[in-house]
Amino acid sequence: MYNIKRLLHVKGKKHVSATEVALSWDSFNKGDVFLLDLGKVLIQWNGPSCSIAEKSRGLALARSIRDSERGGRAQIGIIDSERDSPDLMQIMRMVLGERRGELRDAVPDTKADELQKANVRLYHVYEKDNDLVVQEIATRPLTQDLLQHEDCYILDQGGFKIYVWRGKASSPEEKKAAFTRAVGFIQAKGYPSSTNVEVINDGAESAMFKQLFQRWTEKNETQGLGKVHTTGKIAKVEQVKFDTTQLHARPELAAEQRMVDDASGEIQVWRIEDLEMQPVNPKMYGQFYGGDCYLVLYTYLRSGRPHYVLYMWQGRHASVDEITACALNAIELDRKYGDEAVQVRVTMGKEPRHFLAIFKGKLVIYEGGTSRAQKSSPEPAIRLFQVRGTDEVNTKATEVPARASSLNSNDVFLLSTSQLCYLWCGKGCSGDEREMAKMVADIISRRDKHTILEGQEPAEFWEALGGKAPYASEKRFQEQITQYQPRLFECSNQTGRFIMTEVVGFCQEDLDEDDVMLLDTWEEIFLWVGKASNTQERNEAIASAKEYLKTHPAGRDLATPIILVKQGYEPLNFTGWFNAWDPYKWSDGKSYEEMKSSLGDVSAISEIKVNETADLNNLSLNKRTLSTTSLAGSAAANASSEYKSHFSHSDSNSNSYSNNYNSNNSHSSPAMVPNGEGIYSREVLMHRTVDELPEGVDPTKKECYLSDADFHDIFGKSKDEFYQMPKWKQQNEKKQFGLF
């Protein structure tokens, strides 16, 4: 697989993909990414006006080729600036010749998206009534589930290349006919005679083939801690019995229930006092006063890693300075946690469901006052609270004016006086609501509790409320949740002015790294912040979200929560609104620059010395860069694991891959160890980086240095049996036991 020389063109805005183009400077332009593949070395050339998405997709493709087709042993160099990469440019000039004239401008990405969608076509090849049928079934975006193991398919990449995908269970006749028809496409469609037809076997798909699909997942591939891939569903708002244990298995349920998790994480609460954060006594957690502002940090684990939600609760009677200080302190607290927190603005009385759930049914909202030690005014002797909720997930008590007209026959009310605490149970309340009210009553008052039913109130009860008065007594109709279709908007100032553009029929691919996106789910407004968005876009987006609510023709509630979500740290109640959300799309939250730095010191490639009399594929590093190369090689192995959800290693079904790879890289047997010397214990060899290995140990053949007994104990077979296996199986087992 090292004997290769090709140029790949990476382009697109919403649907970034790569095509093989002529190996010439004439193929280049200023606005796209080009990948020069020389076998042992891959050089990514980034045009001066290319997008972050194109850079990221180009680097992901380069890493996929390195890890799945070159055994992790090729090196990647990146040219962001030709002036800063003279040695890499020298290699490119040796391959492509000297460049003459200026580079041309790129075709606009939006137009390229249309061309790509029109040019990529998938044809189904199958037998029907003893006849062979070739039927066009899809254009871009293609999905993996279109490929059925029982049949063959032809994927026509608009004349750039034609792929023939052969299902494992397809018949020999179908396989032969599919190839014949693919070759026939070249003449029938007027493609150049040099158009390449590549045969792809089911289960051994190349990186170039997989990147043409919206998403590619290997069978039984796990995500995070053993979560097997399942196809996602679009969230639909319908009445479902809510089970918090289903949140992670069903992200669409997390979306419709507006729940990040099962609310079992940890809570920290601060009150804004003198414009600074003051910790709240944990005994007071869940009690919020309308004259204060609070910050609530919720921490939960997902895939073994901490995630954060930062709630900014704004009291109705808090001062403007306190509200501003609350927002500023939230930014500082977010930075302390690596800018990973999901920020949620909570207006008093509009607490989202997850906010209720984290306080386990003990949330109490006081109309005014403060929880500070030095209170400006004494607390009223008589207070009335309306309690709504049936369990720990959805219950809160809200203070209402202490008069009879505040009562409602459908709910439970707590009347706190200097002598007693009355639990008033309306005729329409349920047993669950009464039980939750008893729990809240212990928080509101330490006085004796006295339960009374509607219509059986003592005179003292009415006296405390200032006398009888009419109140709402009709049976409440259950709220009908209309099926609101969520809407996604792109917020961008790339044209020089800030505009919001609606994305129709949206999916995860539409979340642009360069911009801020607004997702309206009716009960909440999400602002998704791309890694490469600028400050103006972020500030304008927040103001525009408020303006969006004000001008909405349906008369939206201006207190609707606005939730700030950062790219790579999306909670389940956000991702559930998207079809088949890929949690690894952005490399676990890494930006292009972070992905680039994870390669190790990529400048090592710029010190490659080329033997001009030898073939260009025989690039090698000089001794001065050996240690740096080892570092990059170690990073390559780590990256292979990190990217397994996107790209998997090819298997022996791909004859061209396994034969070439084995012939060029045949694994040495233990006889290579001179004179039987250099046998080391397993502890010295397993899970060790190149720098940690004993001097003289070949890092690509660690298993050779094991004793026969240790080898058999680890692999469960002899060395002879091990080396008779296909190369890819050897590599997988070496990775499994930390010897790769």
Automatic annotation (TrEMBL):
InterPro entries assigned: ADF-H/Gelsolin-like_dom_sf (IPR029006), Gelsolin-like_dom (IPR007123), Gelsolin-like_dom_sf (IPR036180), Villin/Gelsolin (IPR007122), Villin_headpiece (IPR003128), Villin_headpiece_dom_sf (IPR036886)
Region feature (Disordered): 645-676
GO MF, one annotated term: phosphatidylinositol-4,5-bisphosphate binding
Chain ranges of the HP domain: 674-740
Keyword tRNA processing included in the entry's annotation: no
Pfam families according to UniProt: Gelsolin, VHP
One annotated GO biological process: barbed-end actin filament capping
A GO cellular component annotation in the UniProt record: cytoplasm
Domain of life per record: Eukaryota
Keywords: Actin capping, Actin-binding, Calcium, Cytoplasm, Cytoskeleton, Repeat
Subcellular location per the Swiss-Prot or TrEMBL entry: Cytoplasm, Cytoskeleton
Main location (coarse class): cytoplasm
Composition bias type Low complexity, residue spans: 650-669
Similarity remark: Belongs to the villin/gelsolin family.
Protein name as it appears in the record: Villin like
Organism listed in the record: Serinus canaria
Gene: VILL
